Amino acid sequence: MRESYREQLDEILSDLVAMSERIATAVRRATRALLQVDRTEAEWVISSDEQIDQMRADIDARAFSLLALQAPVAGELRLLVATLRMVTEMERMGDLAAHVAKIARMRYPEPAVPEDLRGNFARMAEVAEAMVLGVGRALQEKDIDDAEAVQQRDDEMDDLRRSQFRLMLGDDWPHGVEAAVDVALLGRYYERIADHADAIARRLVYIVTGQLPEEDAVTSS
């Protein structure tokens, strides 16, 4: 009975890793849709969001079932509680990738990103995808070093976002209001993907060490 319980816990963790890989693919293909003006890629990402939502629902259901039926304690309880938070973060990352794809589709056949910001967005996408993949590796190995590496990348994402604002708010912005709105939204989507990955990395530290993330410790005090 207990062996089966442990197997179910391991399966949940494996499915979280698979979900992160699916999301990383969605981020990559959404960026391809955006920067290469590829409507087919946009449609793939938008349709795949339903599959990510279903993965979340399935993981949720199994985690709640184990909480209700197995009365987990210590590390097992931490894993299940953190899973319920992490899978929500992952679902939101999938939603954000779909939002990027929807803007790419809406502007098709014109590009949504001005030429002078393509490099910025390409790098944003690389950082976001690397953070999502890093989360998957950290979950698979329960590795705090990998989790901390994900958190460190968030600083670069913030720098990229600030550089966008400097361009948009400059007196010589040549692209008009519509492009500024698109850039502001798209930048926010990538930034939020990074934020969610950072939150998952902090949850992993909680799973391994039992130490609450700082803001949660403040909230619970």
Automatic annotation (TrEMBL):
SUPFAM superfamilies: PhoU-like. Residues 18-103, 122-203 form the PhoU domain. Its main location: cytoplasm. InterPro entries: PhoU, PhoU-like_sf, PhoU_dom. One of its GO terms (cellular component) is cytoplasm. Belongs to the PhoU family. It is found in: Cytoplasm. GO terms for biological process: intracellular phosphate ion homeostasis; negative regulation of phosphate metabolic process; phosphate ion transport. Homodimer. The keyword Coiled coil does not apply. Gene3D superfamilies: Phosphate transport system protein phou homolog 2, domain 2. The lineage of its organism: Bacteria, Bacillati, Actinomycetota, Actinomycetes, Propionibacteriales. The keyword Transport applies. This is Phosphate-specific transport system accessory protein PhoU. Pfam families: PhoU. NCBIfam families: phoU_full (TIGR02135). Plays a role in the regulation of phosphate uptake. Keywords: Cytoplasm, Phosphate transport, Transport.
